[in-house]
Amino acid sequence: MTKKVLISGAGIAGSTLAYWLHRSGFAVTVVERAPAMRDGGYKVDIRGAALDVVRRMGLLDEIRALRTDVRGAFVVDATGRRVASMDADTFGGREHGDAEILRGDLARLLYGRTRDAVTYRFGDSIESIMDGTVTLHSGHTETFDVIVGADGLHSRTRELTFGPEREFVHDLGYRIAICAVPNHLGIDREELTYVGPGRTTLVYSTARDTDAKAMFIFRTPSTEDADRRAALRAAYTDQGWEVPRLLEALTPDLYYDALCQVRMDSWARGRVVLLGDAAYCASPASGQGTGLALVGAYVLAGELASASHERAFAAYERVMRPFVAANQKLGPDNVKRMVLGSKGQVRVSMAMLGLMARMPGRERILARVMAPLHRAANAITLPDYGSASATACSGPST
Known about the structure:
Pfam families: FAD_binding_3
Organism: Virgisporangium aliadipatigenens
Domain FAD-binding: 4-312
Protein name: FAD-dependent oxidoreductase
GO molecular function, one term: FAD binding
Structural class: alpha/beta
CATH class of the domain at 171-255 and 345-350: Alpha Beta
Strand order of the largest sheet: 5-4-13-14-15-12-16
């Protein structure tokens, strides 16, 4: 009998899992709160083991065709003077064919590969779970063999099954905000970074996008952000460079959240299992959220195809735990380098970056800085779950 699986969340983790499960003969339903696939989004990296996952899906060439093509990265001072520059791949820690792509572009590729084979229910969400029976917000009730929570950091599935968010979501003490803004600086596939004490601002332009993206990362002891725009503006009131103009250009698509990690003793209970950020968010500062989603989906699908859900869940955790631990360690370490604590630290950092820009072999120096990221991205040997056809789920790819 065909096993029925419900996936909550049509993001990277959920759509990747849907792809692999369909290949193994599961009947898959994906429920997504948003009314349609989310477009746009920030840029994400696919590196290490995650590259192997998309290669096995036959998506690597299409991903590279949609790469952001950001070519240069620059650090600027309060006057806009470029005090340091480097190749964007070096700045982003990319090597060995690693790919950078907008999250929305990757999501569309995954949806294109699954939409004709998988049932998607947009504009709906899980309201309750009782053993394997799920009631959706729309009132639809259905019984499934497995329910997967791939619904992100603030997972409703996790809350219904394991308890309140505060027990598992750990605030790292920083906030992140990302928004599309007019490209008034006229940058062309470049990334500019301005660093102030406790606050960092980035602006970048990607291929095929007339606007730019602005990203703000700042340290804060606050746990209450009732008015997110006001909190962001208050955090950056005395900043120089283009920051005031960027804050004035904020649009309704502003993404704002705490930098958090999810830490759980178990990712499964009964017929419910968690995947991606819902289970083991490493925070955007890790640079590995997309990698964890892709690899986790591949492993979970492979284990479900070869055993009962109880055994599959246990094997999924056994395979993924060391990989998750290595990648979660990156978040707290990286954010301290991204957001400097004092004016003195900023001055020293700017001086060192300016000096490094003139030094021979700077790429080797930065490669050593990025070495922990690459070790973590490759800290798993992907199991071979069989040789099902790579085109078994071959819906349109765009």
